[in-house]
């Protein structure tokens, strides 16, 4: 046993020891946030046990009726679907792992689940069929934990007192000073896949948390040649919290450092444990942020997702090379690949649950570039995408990808009675309406939304409380809409390169098909209440809800009978063009440029001169083209916050800038020749500091610099009191009209899908 690393932890917020357990819970539930070679974990089972005692461990094995009697007296087992660990609810904002036992689900009595009971009996009564270290879908690992822990406990004192001492943090042969209750967790560690790294077998390990002694011990499980599962003693390690003279320490200990075997994935090198994991645990332990989000990929199988994502990534990676849009191809391609992988697994598991054979149909509302529609359609799901504006990339997909240009407004014309799923992937103003459209399309229609921009029913979303982040509050609003529409709404975190990665899913209803009429009245009342107008005029009865295109999906086993055809047709025609809520504005077909690029040139030049004048401390700027001949040091000016600059500008200028995205900050960043904006402050750019940076740029950027060389007049040469800080031959901008070069038009490569 050896301590391989120790770090002192400053705890000004008095969060320890609770913060330590929250940090450990993150490492248990989401190790991929620290170890980038892992895809994630599956928390399989947990039990609370007493500490193994030497006198108990030394007894001969119990067999026959006594074994059954002992099994009946064991603590209850349960599968983990929420957080774990003995820590409090405060912890780093990385997952739900920081929840304490008071927030966990109640334990299920043993034998309640017949499949689990059968598996337990098989493992306990059939020594020839031990638990496996590798994991397959459909295993019953709660019973595995019961069997594995009993075998490990009996072996401790009799055959390995050193391990018992390692677990207790005491000398070999001694017992804990006070009886401890251990929290024992069985988890499956899932390695990440890659094109050059085939999917490695998931590994299982037992994690032993001793709250009283402040230790967490990781016991990896391995399978020998005869199929027996045992603890791999060479790779056992422990995280320990200790206190000395009011100072806290976190340590990492390895049971057999001389025999440690590292595979670089599940079993990292000891140096990584010390330099990376120990540092993260120390930081997480004193972070007081409270998690408001679910764990990543909590609603689907991580193993299936990993395989599917890697397959899709390899299949559609060439899209990055031919991307014709101005958006970042890597971000959008791999984000849509990840969303498609998630939906494919979600739908595959739904077909298994419902006993369906046909693949689900879908409509993507506000489909944008259409790549998600293209992937889902190519993978066999019938569907289409609708967006108000056609994209250039649509022409590259081929006829099998159905994309339509058109505006979606929330009325009876835009219902989808024969569609299984409605998708809203960054659907902006349509996001809160998608649960409503799904609910009114048919009883069998479900929805998936990935909210990004904050929109209400008739415009920008208005915050109602400040105790939550705006993102968390908006997610709760969309969830509230789904509940008001009669859906059971589930939340999950996707694994995508975006800060807005929480999705909301409505798969089932809270009411029976017969209650559709009264439920739709409640929807109408809720929507009107969110608009801020009375439910109905004073003294009048509430207006009846508009008729729907179909109350049930044709042929759907749960759908009610269709209403009278003539009555439905007449009502639909009467209200076909009537919005469900007045004030809704669909996105404009022609996307308006609001990045300050279309502002008048004289207005931009005026603002630039005003801000430069402020930064140069009021020194007079040149209005002609001749720089000052003074030999004093070049004036690089000071630094001001954007708020300070805004206070110095007149009201008309500010109102004009507020109509642009980013306002003043965007305008200053657009004029990067003059200004540098960093961390909310702006200062004059010193081009003497830019030369070394340009030399380190990638080849593509250096080529752009050479193409733009001397194609624009140097602002400093024309306006700065001291002229340009660089000589004419070293400045990338022209010192006077004589140096100007005509701009070069880059040749565009032909895109082929």
Descriptors:
Rossmann fold; disordered C terminus; nine-stranded antiparallel sheet; alpha+beta; tRNA (uracil-O(2)-)-methyltransferase; 3 domains; SAM-dependent_MTases_sf; 753 residues; single chain; seven-stranded mixed sheet; 31% helix
Notes on the structure:
It is a single chain. The chain is built from 21 helices and 19 strands. By secondary structure, the protein is α+β, with helices and mostly antiparallel strands. The strands form 3 sheets. Strands 1, 2, 3, 4, 5, 6, 7, 8 and 9 form a 9-stranded antiparallel beta sheet that branches. α5 (141-159) packs across α6 (161-168). Mean pLDDT is 77; it is low at 55-140, 532-547, 549-576 and 748-753. Residues 100-116 have a biased composition (Basic and acidic residues). Belongs to the TRM44 family. A zinc finger (C3H1-type) spans 708-738. This is tRNA (uracil-O(2)-)-methyltransferase.
Give the name of the CATH superfamily of the largest domain: Vaccinia Virus protein VP39
Terminal CA distance: 58 Å
The radius of gyration is 32 Å
Q: What profile does the largest beta sheet have?
A: 9 strands, antiparallel
Beta-strand content estimate: 15-25%
Protein name: tRNA (uracil-O(2)-)-methyltransferase
InterPro entries: SAM-dependent_MTases_sf, tRNA_uracil_MeTrfase, Znf_CCCH
Domain C3H1-type: 708-738
GO molecular function, one term: tRNA(Ser) (uridine(44)-2'-O-)-methyltransferase activity
């Amino acid at each position: 046993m050896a301590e391989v690393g120790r770090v002192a932890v400053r705890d000004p917020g008095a969060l320890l020891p609770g913060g330590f357990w929250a940090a450990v819970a993150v490492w248990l539930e989401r190790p991929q946030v620290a170890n980038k070679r892992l895809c994630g974990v599956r928390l399989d089972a947990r039990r609370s046990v007493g500490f193994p005692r030497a006198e108990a461990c030394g007894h001969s094995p119990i067999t026959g009726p006594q074994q059954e009697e002992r099994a009946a007296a064991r603590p209850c087992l349960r599968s983990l679907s929420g957080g774990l660990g003995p820590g409090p609810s405060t912890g780093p904002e990385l997952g739900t792992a920081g929840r304490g036992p008071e927030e966990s689900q109640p334990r299920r009595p043993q034998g309640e689940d017949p499949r689990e009971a059968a598996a337990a009996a098989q493992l306990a009564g059939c020594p020839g069929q031990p638990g496996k270290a590798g994991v397959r879908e459909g295993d019953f690992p709660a019973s595995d934990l019961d069997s594995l822990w009993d075998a490990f406990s009996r072996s401790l004192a009799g055959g390995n007192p050193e391990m018992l001492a390692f677990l207790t943090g005491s000398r070999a042969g001694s017992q804990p000073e006070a009886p401890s209750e251990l929290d024992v967790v069985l988890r499956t560690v899932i390695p990440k896949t890659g094109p050059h790294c085939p999917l490695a077998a998931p590994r299982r390990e037992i994690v032993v948390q001793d709250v009283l002694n402040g230790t967490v011990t990781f016991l990896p499980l391995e399978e020998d040649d005869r199929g027996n599962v045992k603890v791999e003693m060479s790779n056992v390690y422990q995280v320990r919290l200790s206190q000395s003279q009011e100072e806290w320490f976190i340590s990492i200990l390895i049971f057999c450092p001389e025999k440690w075997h590292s595979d670089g994935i599940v079993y990292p090198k000891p140096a990584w444990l010390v330099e990376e994991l120990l540092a993260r645990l120390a930081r997480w332990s004193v972070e007081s942020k409270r998690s408001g989000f679910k764990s990543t990929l909590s609603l689907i199988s991580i193993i299936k997702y990993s395989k599917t994502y890697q397959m899709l990534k390899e299949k559609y990676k060439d899209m990055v090379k031919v991307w014709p849009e101005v958006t970042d191809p890597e971000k959008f391609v791999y984000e849509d690949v990840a969303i498609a992988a998630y939906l494919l697994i979600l739908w595959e598991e739904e077909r298994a649950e419902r006993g369906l054979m046909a693949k689900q149909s879908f409509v993507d509302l506000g489909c944008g570039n259409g790549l998600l529609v293209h992937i889902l359609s190519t993978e066999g799901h019938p569907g289409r995408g609708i967006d108000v504006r056609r994209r250039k990339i649509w022409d590259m997909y081929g006829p099998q990808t159905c994309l339509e240009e058109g505006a979606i407004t929330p009325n009876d014309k835009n219902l989808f009675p024969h569609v299984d799923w409605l998708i809203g992937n960054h659907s902006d103003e349509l996001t809160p309406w998608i649960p409503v459209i799904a609910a009114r399309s048919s009883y069998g229609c479900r929805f998936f939304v990935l909210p990004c921009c904050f929109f209400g029913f008739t415009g920008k979303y208005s915050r109602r409380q400040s105790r939550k982040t705006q993102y968390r509050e908006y997610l709760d609003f969309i969830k509230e809409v789904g509940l008001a529409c009669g859906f059971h709404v589930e939340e999950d975190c996707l694994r995508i390169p975006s800060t807005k990665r929480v999705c909301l899913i409505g798969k089932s209803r809270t009411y029976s098909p017969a209650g559709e009429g009264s439920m739709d009245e409640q929807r109408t009342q809720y929507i009107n209440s969110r608009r801020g107008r009375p439910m109905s005029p004073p003294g009048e009865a509430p207006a009846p809800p508009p008729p729907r295109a179909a109350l049930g999906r044709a042929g759907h086993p749960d759908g009610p009978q269709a209403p009278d055809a003539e009555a439905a047709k007449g009502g639909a025609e009467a209200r076909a063009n009537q919005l469900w809520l007045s004030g809704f504005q669909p996105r404009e077909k022609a996307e308006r440029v609001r990045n300050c690029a279309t502002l008048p040139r004289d207005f931009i030049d005026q603002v630039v001169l005003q801000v430069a004048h402020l930064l140069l401390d009021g020194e007079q700027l040149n209005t002609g083209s001749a720089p000052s001949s003074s030999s004093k040091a070049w004036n690089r000016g000071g630094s001001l916050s954007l708020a300070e600059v805004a206070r110095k500008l007149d009201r008309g200028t500010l109102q004009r800038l507020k109509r642009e995205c980013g306002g003043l900050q965007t305008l200053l960043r657009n004029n990067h020749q003059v200004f540098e904006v960093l961390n909310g402050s702006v200062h004059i750019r010193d081009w003497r500091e830019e030369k070394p940076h340009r030399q380190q740029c990638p080849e593509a950027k250096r080529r752009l610099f050479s193409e733009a060389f001397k194609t624009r007049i140097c602002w400093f040469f024309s306006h700065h009191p001291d002229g340009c800080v660089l000589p004419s031959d070293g400045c990338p901008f022209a010192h006077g009209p004589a140096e100007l070069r005509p701009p070069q038009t880059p040749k565009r490569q032909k895109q082929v899908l």
